[in-house]
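Q: Sequence in, structure out?
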Amino acid sequence: MPLSTFGPVGIIDIGSNSVRFVAYGGSERVPSMLFNEKVMAGLGRGLAETGELGEGAMDAAIEALARFRLLAKEMKLVKVHAVATAAVRDASNSGVFLARAKKAGIEPKVIPGEEEARLSALGVISAIPQARGVVADLGGGSLELTPIADGTPGIGVSLPIGVLRLGDKASARAIVTTLKRGVPQAIAEAARGRNLYLVGGSFRAFAQLDLKLSEHPLPIVHQHGMTPQRVRDLRNLVRSTPIDVLRARVGVSTSRLQTLPAAAAVLDAACRVLQPARVVTSAFGLREGILYDDLAPAQRGEDPLLVAALEVGARLGRFGDHGALLDRWIAPLFPDDSEVAARLRLAACLLADVAWNAHPDFRAEWAVDMGLHGNWVGIDAEGRTVLGRTLNSAFGGEIFDAALCELVEERVLEHADRWGAAIRLAQRLSGGTASLLKRARISASEGHLVLTLKRSDSSLYSDAVRKRFRALAAMVGLDPVLELA
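A: Exactly. Output:
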């Protein structure tokens, strides 16, 4: 799995609600966000009544574009994608706005609704490769629905349903009628009994509300799931609770709270019409879909979690990346690991050296925080917990958040502890280097845990190594045996 870097590149996304500039760098498959700024210009506000972009909204958007152009220049971005969506494509005076944007140094591409749907779906596929169901991307001016399966988007549809178009008095019943008329049968069938993947800031705010109210121990929006019944309950809560009260209870931004009633109504209506089994929030959407669309097929097929872990591990490690070697070294001890488990084990091995430069008393906490709260995709809360627990063990941590333990079965956490102990032994034995690890071998046979060293390397078996070897043997229920070959 080679590590390829790119950029930095930028995307300017001119939406109906906000104008956003994001600069990306790092890994090409899973770009890191270097800079992110949005201006709530509200280009789509009033569009349904007048058919035009308002002068004040255009002024705010053009001012933002001028700033973003200067930032992109100073950041030395090698490429900048500038796109405009529903508000600009639907407005009768869009030509005036585009001319002003060009004068400010930005020439956005106006994306048709079907193309916006495709790119948003690609963003979800980029972050959740196994996604199957329908992507719902809610913006200020439109709702895009796109079926996805086997890493491929189907033909999507763009409907004139957006949080700015609807306002705070959105009627779920009226939205249901619009959806029934506008959703093709193929999309309805793709959603029924599967997942509805949510894209867009207002949908993410809705998921954040659920995380806050449920006091989730790992409040990360990406891949947070809800049932349609939970959606309905939250929608009723939003409809009956003043915005000021919601603001006091949750940490959602004021601008997003204002669009929450409309987002809740749209999501409730979508659940009624499409009948998904669950709704799942995606941190990736249109912008990431644009980047994913530029990748070669081989790069698209790479695992986003493992690519990101490789990039972070290589950047923070001491003696270069050898996480894959480390995983192969400990793998003989875990022959029954499923494909899902082996993937998380490899991710932990790729991150096995991330905390070496932290204070020795806090290395475990540092590593756990990276596993739990790293900017990962392709992983849910349970997977993050397993990753954090493994790194906790690998760095000798003795305490792990009890609330997080409730997310995962105890036997799975104990297995993660064994992964961590094996990693801990390997790192101490080899000093964190690849060459010494290659000259050693560990195996399990007939009730014994066998560590095999070259006779010329027998001095590697120090007291510290002996202690870790015995600790691992006790965890896996085997007798420790040292062999010199």
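The chain has three domains: 9-111, 114-288, 303-484.
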